[in-house]
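Extended Data, panel c. Modelled sequence:
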Amino acid sequence: PTANKHNPTMAAKAAAAAAAAASKYGPLWGRGYETFLHRRILSVTGTSDHATTYLQGLVTSDLTSEPRAPREESMENVHTLSGVVNDADDIDDGGGSVEISYGDAAAEGGGGEGQIEEEVPVRFTSKMRSTCFLDHRGRILTDAILWKRTLNTNTDGSDTTQKETTEYLIDVPETTADLLYAHLKQHKLRRSKIKLADKSEELSVHAVYGTLNAEGAPPGYLAAMDPRHPSLGMRILSVGKEIVDADNKDDAADTTPNANEAVNEDTNTDRNKRNVHFENLMNKHFSPTPGTYTVLRTLAGIAEGSEITSRTALETNQEFLNAISFTKGCYLGQELTARSQFTGVVRKRIVPVMIVDTEVEVPRPWVMASMIQDLGEEDGVEKIFGGMKTVGEEEEKKESDGDGGEEKKKKSKVELKGYIPPPLPKLSAAGAGSIVSMIMGSVNMQEPSSSKDEEGNPQEGAGEENDSNAKEEEMKRMEELKRLQQSGQQLQSEIIELAIPGSSIIDKKDGKTIGKIVSAPAPGTTVVLAQMRLDRLGLLGNAQKWNRTNRIMIGDGTKEYRYLPYLPLWWPEIDGATGKEKIVEEKKEEEEEELDEL
């Protein structure tokens, strides 16, 4: 970072490289790290394949095969604030092209400093995967992240005879850890050759944001990109005994809790020693950003822990997060999950919802989405982009030969690259955060125009009148920003009080409940996770449409608000007939062949 500050070219290349790497999975969050104080680590250990066999019958993912990588997102498929226009001079005449994309704009952010030769490797392997545990009814107990590692333990004390042991470390939210531990004990047979343990006070888990490279973890650490989606950051698990041993030799001052640790936590625990070691390691490169994960996953539309307990796997989007295998053998709760996938209709899903005041101007992505839902895809796009045609369509126009001769007919093309935007805005966590910042007034003011040049000298022709106008404009902007911030803080206070888990979202138009709050608003925002009826979002059937002029009430409140739902970047295209992923014929045939083989 120091080198980049003094070398603009290097900084530009680094920015371009980051933009190119991030284009596969959307924009990344800002750089930082976080230590998780409210997650638990449970251990399942067994020789040979006993631990794998035991868990295979309890989890929704297939532990005998490599996990699928998260779906890569072409930036042309993202619903954006504005298009990128090529050959703008020809737009009025029907020429040029419009891309529904900001991929090029992001890449150009590097300053055009040459071509990117190598992308950051993003690997997903069986050493870490996302999964769920279900009860006998097929309802979720909890989600979890499974770490897998191989241990070599001597069985007779010799140096030559070793027996391979497999250990699964289950990274689970604190709110559902006890429930899961009891569930694991319940399904462990008396003669089972596995061991269960709670290692929450022995190990520690962390996250690093703003990178896609999880290679080269230091000794004693396991690292991998979050298997649900890389935009959630790199997951790190501190497991090495050498870390604790090294910490025992440090001075007492080195184990003093800092701002990223619980104030009353015992500083002598192995977990705390690991936290301090990790923070000392990371402070050389990243800044601590406690609380980022809660904001990030809420903006990304990911519910976890007690937020999804007792719900079905498809209602909580677990199939989109690579937590479910529909081709593995039997497991506890499989029947309901399989039936929902292959025969049922998903009528409700958890989605991120931005709640705003009814007086706030609706941001452009939702205006465009409302137009597309009201007018239909073709008519909506035609109105948004001024009657432009899609790729391949031609129109005739007359063109003079330049000498006053007769006009000639010329074929011209208007290109609309990318697919038609979805019924709702499709946003990354970073994109949603930017919109929230603008609405809430949490933005940095731009410097007012000055009558002085870069060196501070008065510009030629500049006078007191220019300075007076600039100061007046600055005062107006500051007053508007202050007004936005005050109204934003007031709105946040209201939503925090009303939007508690379980509260209903009621449509003022007909008085019907259209959703239930799943999680409280992310800190500093009015974005909540809610289980919404897909038909009221315009995602299921044609009877209902989402409208940007909607008015809702939350829970027992009487004040009216407006809700702005959006689709997370990692969502696939939704089939309007089933509420599930829209499957093209080729993919459908492949899945049928896999099922026939089983």
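The first helix runs from residue 2 to 6. This feature is highlighted in the accompanying rendering.
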